[in-house]
## 1
Amino acid sequence: MGAGYVGLVTAACFARLGNHVRVLEVDAQRVEQLRGGVLPIREPGLDQLVEESLDAGRLTFDSDPDSTHGSRLSIVCVGTLDGDGDWTAGTVQAALETLARDADGPRGIVVRSTLLPGTGRKLAETVKAIDPRIQLALNPEFTREGAAVSDFMEPDRVVIGVEDPAAPSALLDDLRRLYAPLDAPIVVTDLTSAEAIKVASNVFLATKISFANELARLCAAMGADVQSVVDGMGLDKRIGRSFLSPGPGFGGSCFPSQSRALPDLARRAGVDAPIMSALAASNEGQADWLLDRLESTASRSVDGWRVALLGLTFKADTDDLRESPALQLARRLVARGASVVCFDPLATAAGVAALRAEGLDVTAADSAEAACSAADAVVVATEWPQFRLLEWQAIARQMRGTFVADARHVVDVDEASRAGLTVIALGVVAKPAAVLVAVEDPAVAAAPLAVTAPR
Ligand code: UDX
């Protein structure tokens, strides 16, 4: 149920594993497109999987609720964010009630949508009040955008929450069979613990990123190279290197909303959780810290500057702009008086439209080079691979100023420095393009100066 991001990946992957999957989607237009193999989202490998399973007759799309009749189980994959990007269980509840009221539909229901801990137990009561034969299980997903198919097919673990983990359950047996080909450990637990595994995993990763972001600030203040620091820390198996890269802050549909919701839940439960409660502010502060560094390196404010913003999506290889830190950088630049010219390989128009809808007067460029033309400074906000290959010599000739703030560690610092630019990097201490030395008598200074790189 639900042909969104999670639903389509789940349906296509289970169909690939040899199951017959009928996707129920309320949007009739989306159903028509999907029947023709046209996907509403971008996800590497997903279109091939959908096409292959459509051809093999293992995948069908329908907007008629009766199409669930005869299925062995239902998997609910409907969205859980409201218009403000905050969590709501309302859509899941409505989907479950529809399924429960249809006595001819499957009585085993699995919720894959992300639920706040405690929600599943209440939902189980709701559906059982409609039909006591119904069994409810939770099966949270841990897939990243841009890598969802491989994350599904090669999971670190499969988590299944059931009403009573100790009791025999036909639904649990079915889920075990569904996942048997994947060779992954299966964690079976109660409903609330399954929900907590999902949310805590995301909030823990968000904490790890925020720790790296704060470490970047401290390293910059101490004159240490944060990239060496996180590499050195990451070699410790207890720590691990992944999700320890500092950047402009985390974004997307999961980390920000869940980093707000988990401390809220703690507050409502009367639980003191200072670490979780600090996450949102730490994340939001990263954009201002980056711009403070740009301004202190330039010894002036960006007020009146033309700034090229390269990258608008919340990470590379997606067109998703939800809670993107790049948009936050744009907001903070405009608040400081800069005029911002945006370029993103996939989302320039959508990103500029979103910012303009907030009343920000930003403009669009149709290439990175065009955005940088006549710019006083460049801010690299998303780690698109093509930004690693930018020709800084050519860009520097077109720029008005000389500053490049690299929030993603993708700028070739040596090449940019050779082009006369000053890179404000995460981890590499900024190299000045030139050092001016004032001496009393220039004739005496004809002897070569010994210059060492600044630490
Ligand atoms: C995340 C989880 O990884 C996934 O398991 C869950 O199912 C959904 O949420 P996703 O939102 O697709 O996936 O993005 P992810 O790749 O995890 O990145 C999240 C954000 O953190 C991005 O803005 C990314 O740029 C940022 N990030 C990630 C860092 O700043 N540093 C890192 O080291 C890793």
Note: DSSP finds 17 helices and 13 strands in the chain.
## 2
Amino acid sequence: MTVIVHENAEELASATADRLAAALASAQAARGTASAVLTGGRTGNAVLAALRSATLDWSSLDIYWGDERFLPAGDPERNETQAREALLDHVPVSPARVHPMAPSDGEFGDDPDAAAEAYAVLLHDVASFDVCLLGVGEEGHTASVFPHSPAVAETARAVVAVRDCPKPPPTRVSLTLPTIRRAERVWLMTAGAAKAEAVAAALGGADEAELPAAGARGRQETLWLVDKAAAGEY
Ligand code: 6PG
């Protein structure tokens, strides 16, 4: 587990976008393709916006999501909507290789369990992800896995529906921690003094049930990418 501290949120986003571009380009050089798992949240979207100018073979990139707000297609609160506005509508990704989680008015209707199961089926043939981007909540959630929730205890299903989520909107779909841990590189990115307690607890060895972000680890790399304010108590 490596911690990289940047001066502020803006530098964190810019430097992480550069780091992400390099990691994906390296995977493409090695295998001809790359994959990234996107996250919602302010930091995640700031990184995506900073990635617009990156030099990548955008058509050889698979895009997944770590979680999604279970809302109608195009809803401004959906992570997919925000990722398209920040990045995907501005670069030549292959539409067939962008894999959003189903909306609440899609083929599965208003059934988040069915949407979660369908995403698990999609991921069944995906052995690993090159980089999994994650945000961190003030109480230590990551993706939509919250402390002492059914999701944090899930070991059988790869993707779950999340209901009564403490962070609105209340219904979501999320990868579980074991699925996140299939990634080669897991990058937890967060900024601001409000996250300092969660960052310190996670880096101090907190249990994942208490602090789900502590359970987000990559097969070859786990990076905590923070600004000075979020590192304040570390
Ligand atoms: C979501 C995100 C969530 C987010 C964290 C941090 O759908 O809300 O996936 O996990 O990344 O809550 O959000 P901020 O970066 O905005 O603090």
Note: The first strand starts at residue 2 and ends at 6.
